[in-house]
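Q: I'm building a small set of examples for a reading group on sequence design. Run inverse folding on the following structure and report the sequence directly after it, with nothing in between.
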């Protein structure tokens, strides 16, 4: 089925894309408070929301969209993993909504995500000031525009931090969980960690649609430092066996299953750069001067490229003799 833009409802934080009758992707708008992509699924008797954005303001609009498109509040809200841009909107969905995640993701939310909010409260103003300084020094128009959008998003995040509360999942699963309705069935799957220590995705077999969370980035540099790159590649290779026509990434525009091998190629490329640098005796600082290879030069958020090389270089650090 061809994907068409959904004209209503609207939000400054995301655009809605209709993937099938009763299935919508909420694609994050640059500079808004969503940051990640999300999903809305009408199961028939009940509705489901997949991921809840970076800010409650964006999640408010996601809830309103679910009501308008399905005629009801969601009964289920799924968190694909612990990162704040996927879970901070949980508190918007009232007690009638059951928050679902893997058991490991719940543990990581209670520890890492909670600590991250506290750290961000202390450091967000200094971070914004550093971005403002970078913007003031930047002369390239394209890079200035990108910095302006990031600043806008971070200011939106800073505004919600004083009152931001983390709502943990009510229900956990490991491996797989089926959620059925009279209209369609939904399958939650997790093979363990890859992007983080635990990642889950949502598969709609009748519609051939898969919401990947951050296991899939489309035309955006993926972020490696919180996960296991080898496991990430293995999980994507297993998912390639699914019958998928449309793929909703955690970040970037809508894609297909053909985008999964590109993420594998990107991860393997970063690993080769670091392995070759170490074999040549290059220090970390010299390795970080490596330009983005041409195949990925058009991908957005290249700041992750340097972070990924740093992580892999340190991960390959030779162990000291006992």
């Amino acid at each position: 089925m061809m994907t068409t833009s959904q004209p209503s409802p609207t939000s400054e934080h995301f655009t809605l894309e209709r993937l099938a009758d009763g299935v919508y992707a909420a694609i994050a708008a640059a500079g808004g408070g969503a940051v990640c992509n999300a999903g809305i699924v009408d199961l028939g008797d009940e509705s489901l929301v997949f991921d809840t954005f970076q800010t409650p303001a964006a999640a408010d609009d996601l809830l309103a969209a679910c009501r308008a498109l399905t005629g009801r509040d969601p009964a289920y809200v799924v968190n694909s993993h612990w990162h704040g841009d996927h879970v901070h909107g949980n508190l918007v969905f009232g007690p009638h909504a059951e928050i679902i995640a893997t058991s490991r993701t719940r543990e990581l939310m209670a520890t890492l995500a909670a600590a991250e909010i506290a750290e961000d409260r202390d450091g967000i103003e200094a971070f914004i000031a550093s971005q403002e300084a970078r913007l003031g020094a930047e002369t390239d128009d394209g890079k200035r525009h990108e910095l302006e959008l990031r600043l806008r998003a971070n200011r939106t995040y800073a505004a919600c931090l004083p009152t931001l509360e983390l709502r943990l999942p009510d229900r956990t699963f490991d491996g797989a969980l089926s959620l059925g309705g009279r209209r369609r069935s939904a399958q939650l799957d997790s093979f363990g960690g890859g992007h983080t220590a635990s990642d889950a995705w949502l598969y709609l077999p009748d519609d051939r649609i898969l919401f990947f969370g951050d296991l899939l980035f489309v035309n955006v540099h993926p972020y490696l430092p919180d996960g296991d790159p080898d496991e990430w590649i293995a999980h994507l290779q297993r998912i390639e066996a699914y019958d998928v026509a449309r793929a909703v990434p955690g970040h970037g525009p809508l894609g297909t299953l053909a985008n999964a091998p590109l993420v594998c190629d990107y991860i393997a490329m970063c690993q080769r750069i670091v392995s070759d640098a170490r074999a040549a005796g290059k220090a970390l600082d010299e390795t970080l001067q490596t330009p983005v290879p041409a195949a990925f030069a058009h991908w957005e958020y290249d700041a992750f490229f340097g972070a990924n090389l740093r992580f892999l270089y340190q991960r390959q650090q030779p162990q000291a003799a006992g």
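Helices lie at 56-70, 84-87, 103-137, 141-160, 229-239, 259-279, 284-287, 303-315.
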